[in-house]
């Protein structure tokens, strides 16, 4: 059949042979030559690309796909030329990680405040992650940590992990977490606490305690009355019944808990007393499923002004009812694919971001109705669990979000979902939260462009 086969009774075409002679000339048409010569090709100024443009490009490329600083890119940019070097190094030093004494020695040499460059790099540090692992040879110790913090006057966030020490041959890999945490770790000595007290007034503290020492976190909380964001992981803090504690002075705006055992109400009442008085708490993120009693306790004290609530599951009636009492919620997050449908039907009109898990059995009708009826909704984040992409109503959710102008973010990796929704430890004006270079301390931006 020919290419005309769709026509009835078509016949094969006749083939006719021709002899053709072609002559090519190399001279271009004057008209095209004039047009080509008139095109102005872009040229780099003799003084180089303006440093403001370079800095804007570096800041835009600061985060990699995992939400971490692109150290490889920034390191290479620091070697391009002298004009780029200091600006790229400032971005490199914005977030530092200290896990050993050798790393501390290199860091203190780089931020030595006796030199102009060292002073600039020390002032560029905004976030610091440090690990006190007493099982490792050459580990970072408490006094070195205090010195490192003191060298960073603009430090905003300290992320500290502490691991207890165990006798040789006693640590069994794969043993339950509770048993592995039964190892001692020293409390902070007076000299280290004095250095920390004299250092910067940090605003965000994340403390992961993998030891049996539950006094360390209380010591750190006394150091910084400026805290607004607090994250506690690992060993649950405990207030000693034999000690009279002064009221905790911080009015927290964000609290994140991921403790092996649920914190006692006595500790939370002491920790959040000032926050309840000033109605300052805006974000509660519980990474382990709380008991109905604990969630009810937190909502009763802070639900009136709470903007963001996150727990693993809202499947039970008690957890759903507690969330429904928070009438100022801008954000509701859960990773479970099974949530009580009534919670979505009762979301406040000001809701801006919703995050949940999806599998073939998830009820999507209440969520689709929420997308259609909440004018302030900005984004919906969905983690697709087993065969979640085959949900028969997923297309309806996509169409509803597209029609309403809501950003629908789909992921198959729960770690990616957490990265998308957590953002920086700063309470934002709108949700969802993001990671930006300006959000944590806008006043420090002058350091980068100086």
Automatic annotation (TrEMBL):
Quote the InterPro entries the UniProt record gives.
LRR_dom_sf
Name recorded for this polypeptide: F-box domain-containing protein
Species assigned in the record: Suillus luteus UH-Slu-Lm8-n1
């Amino acid at each position: 059949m020919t290419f005309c086969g769709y026509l009835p009774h078509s016949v094969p075409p006749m083939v006719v042979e021709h002899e053709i002679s072609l002559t090519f000339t190399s001279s271009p048409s004057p008209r095209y030559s004039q047009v080509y010569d008139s095109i102005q090709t872009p040229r780099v100024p003799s003084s180089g690309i303006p440093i403001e443009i370079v800095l804007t490009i570096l800041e835009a490329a600061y985060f990699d796909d995992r939400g971490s600083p692109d150290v490889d890119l920034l390191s290479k940019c620091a070697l391009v030329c002298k004009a780029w070097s200091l600006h790229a190094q400032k971005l490199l030093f914005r977030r530092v990680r200290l896990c050993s004494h050798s790393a501390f020695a290199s860091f203190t040499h780089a931020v030595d405040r006796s030199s102009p460059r060292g002073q600039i790099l020390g002032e560029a540090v905004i976030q610091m992650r440090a690990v006190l692992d007493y099982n490792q040879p050459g580990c970072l110790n408490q006094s070195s940590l205090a010195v490192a913090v003191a060298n960073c006057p603009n430090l905003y966030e300290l992320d500290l992990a502490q691991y207890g020490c165990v006798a040789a041959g006693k640590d069994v890999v794969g043993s339950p977490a509770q048993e592995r945490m039964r190892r001692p770790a020293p409390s902070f000595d007076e000299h280290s606490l004095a250095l920390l007290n004299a250092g910067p007034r940090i605003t965000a503290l994340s403390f992961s305690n993998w030891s049996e020492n539950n006094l360390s976190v209380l010591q750190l909380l006394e150091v910084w009355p400026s805290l607004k964001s607090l994250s506690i992981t690992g060993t649950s803090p405990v207030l000693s019944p034999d000690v009279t504690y002064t009221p905790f002075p911080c009015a927290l705006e964000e609290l994140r808990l991921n403790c092996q055992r649920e914190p006692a109400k006595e500790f939370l009442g002491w920790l959040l007393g000032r926050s309840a008085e000033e109605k300052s708490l805006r974000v509660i993120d519980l990474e382990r499923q709380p008991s109905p009693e604990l969630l009810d306790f937190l909502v009763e004290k802070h639900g009136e002004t709470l903007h963001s609530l996150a727990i693993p599951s809202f499947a039970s009636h008690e957890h759903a009812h507690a969330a429904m009492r928070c009438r100022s919620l801008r954000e509701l997050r859960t990773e479970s694919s099974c949530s009580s449908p009534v919670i979505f039907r009762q979301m406040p009109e000001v809701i801006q971001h919703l995050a949940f898990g999806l599998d073939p059995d998830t009820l999507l009708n209440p969520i689709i109705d929420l997308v259609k009826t909440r004018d302030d909704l900005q984004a919906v984040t969905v983690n697709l669990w087993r065969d979640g992409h085959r949900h028969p109503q997923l297309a309806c959710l996509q169409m509803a979000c597209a029609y309403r102008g809501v950003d629908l973010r789909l992921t198959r990796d729960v770690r990616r979902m957490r990265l998308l929704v957590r953002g920086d430890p700063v309470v934002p004006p709108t949700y969802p939260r993001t990671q930006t270079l300006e959000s944590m301390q806008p006043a420090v931006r002058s350091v980068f462009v100086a």
